[in-house]
Amino acid sequence: MLKMSNKLRIHVSIRNANLDDLFKIYLVEKSSFDRPYSLDTLRWIIASKNSIVLVAEIERKIVGYVAGLIKGSVGHIVSIAVHPNFRGLGIGRKLLLSILEKFSELRLSRALLEVAVDNDIAIYLYKSSGFRVSRRLRNYYGDGLDAFLMVLDLGDTTTLLRYNKSKKIMTLQER
Question: pLDDT per residue over 86-121, tens digit each?
């Protein structure tokens, strides 16, 4: 359970996405980014056998998603988004930890992602989850905006980020 306030608690469930979720994922994508992925790109990601796409639901409504592509021993998080009406509730962290757990189950050695250098909230989320800035990618978004390439070593780290399903809470667990 995630606590929204002292009086209201919500349950966020995470599940694997499927093509039936495509349009709802696209709506979250469009509401989250100035340059959203197209429907065709999202369809390709969801259908790819080398991808992991998870959705966050509240009362069966998709409110967020995370997508990762697997390339060799690396999990590349290509998108993570939470609908603006549901931000600040820990849903992004829950999605991030869930995909990292999937990467760990597959014995991937690293996770990586790109994030706009001015996206302080996302950078904080990633750093607090164990990612480190690897390098700056100049003009990554094609409009003069740079990105940071961030990396998490899954095989060499002493702490494994995990979602404790039995308690419905997020924890850091020692290996």
Answer: 999 999 999 999 999 999 999 999 999 999 999 999
* Cα 44 from Cα 51, distance rounded (Å): 9
- pTM of the full predicted structure? 0.85
Burial string for 139-150 (b: 16+ CB within 10 Å, else e) reads: ebeeeebebbeb
Q: How many domains does the chain have?
A: 1
**Residue 50: which CATH number?**
3.40.630.30
Residue 87 structural domain? 2-174
